[in-house]
Design goal:
Chain lengths: 107, 126
């Protein structure tokens, strides 16, 4: 199975800050990577697929980059509604696997 | 609007069975694979499995942790996906989510494919 790791596990930032979350795969997954946002008590919501493509309706302050084993999710200007846990997920091979999540809150 | 609504969750004892339903609306159900994920209390997300749509043979794939105990099926005429869970264990306690589509090879549609239901809670406890 492909193992996914994320860092940091949590972070606290101010409104307007640039926030970066890292995700690493245990083997090359090309660009087969999703980023999800899960607000407290809600279902996950897809933000980015194919490592860097924004899903429909996702605000432009979210961006993704990376290829192979190292990936990054960036929020260019943190907003109060971005308080959530963010997960990366690989879909290069079965089983589909997720990172452990990064919890983001407002300082 | 595309909607997915899970139902059928509840509290039950280890070893029992339960069937979850995912009732959909707002899209052509037969055009999409359907997936199930779960999230144990306070934990991260786990893929459970998916079922291909008929065009791709209709077969299902499963996580190792549920293979042989869980079965995913679909009723294209009613727009419903099912998750039959047998021999339930305490480790199966989670919120179960169904999603439209499947992130795997030819099943990936990309933009707008991924829609989640609100989830249904399953608690397995003696």
């Amino acid at each position: 199975d492909i193992q996914m790791t994320q860092s940091p596990s949590s972070l606290s930032a101010s409104v307007g800050d640039r926030v970066t979350i890292a995700c690493q795969a245990s083997q090359d997954i090309d660009n087969f990577l999703n980023w999800y946002q899960q607000r407290p008590g809600k279902a996950p919501k897809l933000l980015i697929y194919d490592a860097s493509t924004l899903d429909t309706g996702v605000p432009l302050r979210f961006s993704g980059s990376g290829f192979g084993t190292h990936f990054t999710l960036t929020i260019s200007s943190l907003q109060p509604e971005d308080v959530a846990t963010y997960y990366c997920q690989q879909y290069d091979n079965l089983p589909l696997t997720f990172g452990p999540g990064t919890k983001v809150d407002i300082k | 609007d595309v909607q997915l609504v899970e139902s059928g969750g509840g509290l039950l004892q280890p070893g029992r069975s339960l069937r979850l339903s995912c009732t959909t609306s707002g899209f052509t159900f037969g055009d999409y694979a359907m997936s199930w994920f779960r999230q144990a209390p306070g934990k991260g997300l786990e893929w459970v499995g998916f079922i291909r749509n008929t065009v791709y043979g209709g077969a299902a794939e499963y996580a190792a942790s549920v293979r042989g105990r869980f079965t995913i099926s679909r009723d294209d005429s009613r727009g419903i996906a099912y998750l039959q869970m047998n021999s339930l264990q305490t480790e199966d306690t989670a919120v179960y989510f169904c999603t439209r589509g499947a992130w795997f090879k030819e099943l990936v549609w990309g933009d707008g494919m991924d829609v989640w239901g609100q989830g249904t809670a399953v608690t397995v406890s003696s």
